[in-house]
Amino acid sequence: MNEIFQEAFSKHKQGKLTDAENLYKKILEENPDNADVWDLLGLVYYQANKFSQAEEYIKKALELNPRLYYLENLARVYLDSEKYDIASNLYADIVKHSPKYENYFNLAMSYKGAHQWEKAKEAYYKSLEINPEGYESYFNLAYLAMNDNNPQEAINCYNKALAINPEDWESMYFLSLAQMQVKDYEHGLKSFEARLCRQSAILSQEKIYPNLMKSQPLWQGEDLKDKILFTYYEAGYGDMLMLYRFMPTLTKMCKKVIIKPQKELAPLFRENSYGAEVIEIFDFEKEIYFDYHIPFLSIPYVLGCKAEDMFIHHEGYLKANPPKIKYYKEKFCQNDKFKIGIKWQGNTHYDRERVIDVKDFFPLFELPNTQFYSFQTLDGSEEIEKLKEKTNIINLGETFSNFSDTAGAIENMNLIISNDTSLVHLAGALGKQCWVLLPYIYNWRWHTDLSKCDWYDSVKIYRQKDHGDWDSVFTKVKKDLSEII
Q1: Which residue segments constitute the domains of the chain, with CATH numbers given?
Q2: Is pTM, for the whole model, over 0.85?
């Protein structure tokens, strides 16, 4: 039987979980009172993310022998299966008997998952008393500081994490966001170069243009007067729209700029090229020649932007296509009402906090002499049926094939009201009045002073007073809207 156990344990260590499972079960058929094997079998299921079975078998081990080690394993099952209240109760008891770093750290993670922020902080700091080199605790304390809208404290914590582990790119990336939120762009843009999407953007271009990308260098500030610069998209539409304000500067510096944005942005950028050549995302067969290349979001860093340098061209650096303005006016906007375009959802891959329930817009529909238009596209578009039950909303989103279309529609609106999404950046770049609705924990780009928008003169900021509190936001929006109609 000992030989079978050694084989099972060896398979387990090698990650051959099915083999280990079968052997552990064979042992238990002969010796059902072997607590260690029940625990190990539970760990096999835990490693396979089969948490209910893991819980069952580790509990069996605890019934046979109430070892603290088994209890730690069970607590970890609850933590990773997001049963945070149960996990925190277990870890609170465990640290009384085993006050080691890992247990206090897991206690903090349990409290964090349960949104018991203050208890989480206490546990992280306790873990650091035990192990001052625990950079993961500093990383999570930085998260909690951002959760308190305290980016300066987050900066302090990220710097401590990086002092311990300088190679931690995640800490460097999130440090950049905190630095930029306090408008420390001199350091923030440098830290921002650690972002993963930058490397992904470079690698994607190397696959398309392997000879050119590997033979020509990244632009690091060299004189471009007689040179061709190739720049390409990364991250989201909003980032590209916001930083397109640098295109007039860039084209004046270069013999030529070639830019490859997302295909949805290409027509709009072509209409506002400032002399740049705009190529399509899937234009593989087209030969392009350049002297330097750079991911688009790195341009402010290489230009050496500091603080207010970031906010050149506050508005009007993009113009809508006149025929499209006319199209939307004649087809959808032949009325004398106050025209309001709304959007409630953007890319939910990163941040669901920014999504607004369409029912929160209902109080606005009570205002007289208004006509609402939906600018929602893709995910979230199905929610328009709920809006139609309350108001005669016109669905413009279904007519958009690219951002040039959206720009034409925006120019016919009196006001855009939107969650934090690319529509806000497009409206701001066009100089169109826009109200952006932010969650309590908001994106770095809106900075700490929400009384004004640094990027666009025409954008006004509204923010939740507490987590999930859209009621207070829409109460203020309705009041302000009633005053200007």
Answers
A1: 2-171 (1.25.40.10), 196-311 (no CATH), 322-484 (3.40.50.2000)
A2: yes
